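Structure ticket #2291
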Amino acid sequence: MRDLFPGYYRPTEDEFKELWEKCIFVLDANVLLNLYRLDAKARDDFLGVLQKVKDRLWMPYQVALEYQFNRIKAVQDCEGKFKTIETYVNKAKSGLKTLQSDTNYRFAEAKLTEFINKIDTLIASFRAEFESLEQDQVKSDQYDFIREKIDYLFSNCVGQSPESQDELDQIYREGEMRYKAEYPPGFCDWENKKDSSRFYNGLEFKREFGDLIIWKQILEKVSSENIESIIFITDDRKEDWWWKTKGNWTLGPHPELVREIKEAGAKLFYMYSSESFLKWANKYLDAHVPDESIEEIKENINTINIVREIIPGVGNFQNFNERDAVEAFQNFLENDYIGKSTTSSGRVDLIHVNHKEDVIDGYEVKFVHEYQLQYPPSIRKKLINGFSQICSYLQNQDIDRGFLVIVFANSKTPSLLALESELEDLVDSLGWDNMKLGFVVGFLTDLNNQATFKLLFSSRNFNSGVL
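Resolution: structure written out below.
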């Protein structure tokens, strides 16, 4: 039966030894992008293992393309984390200074001063280590030493581009049939990334079929070059790649993938996450990767996948526009939040007469395109302009309360903690009663082919004032 159902059998120990000795190693784009999210030690350890097998590395063209498309976002994710840490360190210090100067706490002034002096010393020491850590990370506007290493490792071993749009369209047609039958890989991405495309070199690459394109290019490599052994490394843990039990235990590659690649000519095939790849590299490649680096990679992957799971169904709707954002937020207010109608206004985007509190609430909606995330000053300009408009309406008594509504094109956002802090600081700097001026932040997703607003966070007066 093993020959009939190879995907349901784990390779033997002898087969694993042969696999690691002879295989080519193929990495998914998410593995390369996760390198930007690791500390320097774990990243160098991972790259060191790839160096040991440099002559057996190969990259599908689709992997290379997705890496280039998403590299800047991976870098900016890391930059946002550093900015968030700095913001909270500064807030902690500022809060203590405020207490020290408050006459109500004069009885504890000596102890507070002593404590603040100790904190200042600790913060100075932390900042020195923090700056050293930050220097080990790639900056979005500076030289990318990680990409240079990837370029070196995969020089002359990247697959060919699709020859024509017809070749891709054929994959898309097959993909629709496969996905309807939940045939791997990629069917888990069908709804999340549907109707979202990227263009390069005159070709349209539909995002929902990205995994299938990668798989097809791997199969072509196997069949055209008589590749007998292959290891695929991916940090995608969904069931359209893996064979999983009801308890979410991963048993190995999806059985249909094993069957399909063996039909293409492979003798041995297996898949690993980055973490498990390093564990087994210690055994089969004598890699000597320390446990600390493996744990760092494990925690990084788990965090990324948890975030993806708690915000399901999000896509990359680059065709959404300002009008979609206003209509989606209006529907959110009327159906999910206020429960009463709002109206368009000749000035602010939306008006709601709050009869319960006898006030008029105004909402100014600002839509943030995905491309604008690569240029943070453009987002800050939207915030400042939006608040300026609302303040003028408050000044003219056109509205009693004003809310700036920030709507992102999809779930890709700047650091939410840093954004919330910046919005709070802007509100404070404008000098209005904090019950009169507020903000709402969310993103657009697709529900039954309609733009739908999903709330991320808001100022306290929005939560307490309009319900």
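Closing remark: Residues 192 and 312 are 8 Å apart (CA to CA).
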